[in-house]
Design brief:
Strands 3-2-1-4-7-5-8 form a 7-stranded mixed sheet. By secondary structure, the chain is an alpha/beta fold. The two termini are 27 Å apart. It is globular. Helix 1 crosses helix 4.
Length: 247
């Protein structure tokens, strides 16, 4: 028998937040589903995250902890965790945003009502956002660039909260190849290209990292080094060769 929902939390060096995130996700899942599994993918953490997760897994039979590939392979790790289980719904949230767990129940109800993909949006009307201005500007530029190139109409490609129906994930998964954070964008472009219904749910989102201005600048530079080649690959796949939408 498949689970009603598999919910994945990709994590790396999240000793300050991982216990709260796991606890809140498990509580939300108990409210939304009868049968479920919460899966934490630990991407080679070097702090006490693995020790915390080992303890939590011993205390909770509905928590599975698996090893990720290596740092910064978020997309690949989520993809592999989804593929490990048979489920009616697949979802994930970023490990440093435990407050996103409040949206699991309404998002899963939307999936049950007929939507195939439900994503959190920090920029949709009604959303509330607490984030450094530099990150808002860069994120907005990224979303506008993707919209200008692909015309998908999505306001927030990179929000770390997404749910997929089994039908949608079965169609999307064979075509998704990005391994890092552009995977979030790739799966949405695949969904849109296949005519799969995507619902953007306005959320309240707070940047909990507390980075300094210098750290934000370095993060922007790092993101750009990943974003630019990934976007070029997606342009080739989805706009030129069209192979990205063929099984």
């Amino acid at each position: 028998m498949p689970y009603e929902c598999i919910f994945v939390i990709p994590a790396r060096n999240e000793e300050k937040s991982i216990e709260e995130t796991v606890g809140r996700v498990c509580t939300a899942m108990e409210q939304a589903f009868g049968s479920f599994m919460v899966v934490v993918v630990d991407a080679s953490s070097t702090d006490s995250t693995p020790r915390i997760l080992k303890r939590l897994a011993k205390e909770n039979s509905r928590l599975d902890v698996i090893s990720g590939t290596q740092p910064h392979q978020k997309g690949y790790d989520i993809h592999c965790a989804f593929m490990k289980y048979d489920s009616s719904i697949y979802g994930f949230l970023d490990s440093d945003t435990p407050e996103m767990s409040q949206y699991i129940l309404p998002a899963s109800n939307l999936i049950k009502s007929g939507y195939d993909v439900v994503i959190g949006s920090r920029y949709k009307g009604g959303a509330k956002l607490d984030r450094p201005k530099s990150r808002v500007v860069v994120s907005g530029l990224y979303n506008k660039t993707i919209n200008a190139i692909f015309g998908d109409g999505i306001s927030d490609h990179q929000c770390g909260f997404k749910l997929f129906s089994k039908r949608a994930w079965s169609a999307i998964s064979p075509l998704a190849h990005e391994k890092k954070w552009p995977w979030d964008t790739e799966v949405l472009l695949i969904a849109k290209g296949m005519g799969i219904k995507v619902y953007e749910m306005p959320i309240s989102w707070r940047d909990s990292r507390g980075r300094t201005p210098i750290e934000n600048i370095l993060r922007v530079a790092s993101d750009a080094s990943i974003f630019i080649p990934a976007t070029l690959r997606m342009i080739y796949r989805f706009k030129i060769s069209r192979h990205g939408l063929r099984k």
